[in-house]
Input
Amino acid sequence: MEVIFLLIGVSLILAVTFLWLFFKAMKDGQFDDDYTPSIRMLFDTHKKSTKDQSTKPKSYE
Amino acid sequence: MSSTSNSTATQCYHCGENCESDSLKIEDKVFCCQGCKLVYEVLAEKDLCDYYNLESFPGESQKKRSSLRNRFDYLDDAETESNLLDFKNQEESHVTFYIPLIHCASCIWLLENLYHINAAITFSRVDFVKKKVQIKFLHDKISLKAVVELLSTIGYEPKINLSNLEEKPVHHTDRRTITKLAVAGFCFGNMMLFSVPEYFSETALIAENFRGLFNYLNILLALPVVIYSASDYYLSAWNSLKQKRINMDVPIVLGIISLFFYSLWEVLTYGNAGYMDSLGGLLFFLLLGKVYQQKTFATLEFDRDYKSYFPIAVTRLNQDREEVIPLSKLDVGDVILVRDEELIPADALLLSSDANIDYSFVTGEEIPVPKRKGELIYAGGRQSGEPVLLTVQKSPSQGYLTDLWNNESFEKEKTGLLEPLSNKISGVFTWTVLAIAAVTFIFWAFQDISLAIKAFASVLIVACPCALAMSTPFTLGNTLRIFGRGKFYLKNAAVVERLALVDTIVFDKTGTLTDPSEATINYVGEPLTMETEQILKSMVSRSTHPLSNRINAWLGPIEAKKIDQVKEVKGNGIIAGFKGQKIILGSKTFANFNSDIETSSGNMVYLTIEGEEIGVFHIESGLRNGAEKLIGDLEDEYQLHLLSGDHPHEYDSLQGKLGTSMLYNFLQSPMDKLEYIKKLNQRENSTMMIGDGLNDAGALRESTIGVAVTDQVSHFSPASDAILSADSISKIPGFLSFAKDSRAIIKASFVLSFLYNIVGISLAVQGILSPVVCAILMPLSSISVVVFTTLATNAVAWKKGLLTKNHT
Output
């Protein structure tokens, strides 16, 4: 049964870590804007990095 | 990935407006104006045409855009710049702009790809809900002014106003309550875990030597809850006691303290478990309710003052040289130049011969008022037409309108107007509980002093009004949410309780009860032939003046005649030529109309052909849709008043439509309106003021509840307690009665939680309260009260039609 002492310690450390992670995320503003990221993730990125030389509108398909 | 959608050729590729001609063309794309075409060219050059693929017609029409080159010159001013910037170091500057135009995915995409247009912009990020964009740029390579100009070129001109300049934009998101909630939740969860053996104490689930450890761990975990999470309650209770009052937080604090110290005593002296887990649960649920009640409409601003309305910079003439200066540097006596569509920043005398001032900002009336040389023009008006020169008479902070803000009613907070229901009850509650506890103590003290102490503490613990304290925030929070769905946005939850007690409603007329677009038109004069009507149609359809639009609507869908030449003289009228005849439609002097026609009311538009006087259009603003029904619904229950800044010429027609039960007051200045409300308040009335313009700002502030009506919720509205979307105005009776219902629901949930308390206290006075009973009874009562209030408010809202299925 002595293992419970160890387990309590481990569980408390885990819980405190999660609490700390939550605070960190909150400070970074993760919960300030919960709408824009849902749109942002839908943007395609293929054009941003590859600069095409042709000036004409290009059609990939 | 070229867009293959073959849209109708007449729609502008950028903004989707109908194009009058297809002369502005790039490849197969047609544009309505130079501005739209320019935006497209910039984006095409930088390879950013994905903008047009994400949404069709993502842009906003660029027709009305100011084309002045030097209008951002004030941003070069070092003081202005440092006030706007959030952060600056050797290389980088950070700035946050409010851009009301942000409305779709394309907007986000383009604004977050600014670095493609100019590499000196290193970072840009959009907050869609707040319509803000944060930009980081290298200030050695691009100036703040150039950044603003760049945004303006692509059609996203930021809104910069005076209040941005005066103080740093503060981060409104209050994260403290959430942090406290997180701490309480963390501690509560762990304490419950360590208390499990206690709940099953009879079965001796776990060896005896763990109990001590678990109890001490519980004390350790309770400390952050008592010291940190509960700190707001101590403060509030202390403040209320200082004022010799008892608010809801006093019995809560009493409960917290007795729970904590009694448990501490139990653990340390007897090695028993105490009620630490209940304490954690109590704080967790209380804070949850608080977070729910704190839900605000972050995108709406309720506390605007005049500074938000005024322009940030002004063009001053200094020895015939134009210079753009920040408004704060404007002095009395300066000569300023105000161009088309610009706001007049201070009370000033007109130096130019004519001006046309549109006071829609101030009064809600959108038809410009002609002014002559030497007349005083109040701040807040907007010039339409030729640029005018003015000489400043008063500093911007001491004008006719801004004086309102210096009135004492803006000084005081709107507190103490009404004591919340819960505060009234908590006084009685606290004294009753203390009395019961004292009697219990005395009763047991004769038999067993330690049992007496236990029973005394038990009464305080179990009577702790957690359920009582939770019914108010959850009911009001939910009510707030339901109102929000009906496009009625309240500043905070306390407004709901005040709303329930309103007995007097005061309406502003122009823009609130009347809607400029619902105009009625009377034509007096020679009958118009079909041909004349067709000519008029083609004249007015080219003008953007509000009166032209109304005549256009009145003429109906007739075909426009092709006419030779049309010229609009802004603020005066339209001249057209047809088969060699000169046709003038416009103001009396402009049309050279000499004979007087009996004028009853409203705006007049005169028509002459080749100098011959043909007739006059009378244009009266009409009532808003549903206004008659609204007054009809309200007049039985409430005292109704109407305040109007206009002449009483519309009195008869208004009375005919709105009935005689309302008290009509005309020729009210902004100050009169304020005084009127003050007088009503002195007669112990609970007033609700419904207005829209800057001239109602004083009255909105003075009334028990000020409601600002606006066509565009995100647009400017005066400081108020609530913002109502104009198309929801007929729902006001529903909102009012719903506010009353939610008050009744609070009362009902009080009864419910009293029942729990009676059960709990009856156990406690006998001294047989155990931790298990406590651990079950407390959360159960809290949760059931929360469930009851939420279900009840939703049910009532359904019944009243304020909630419908297809709301998102």
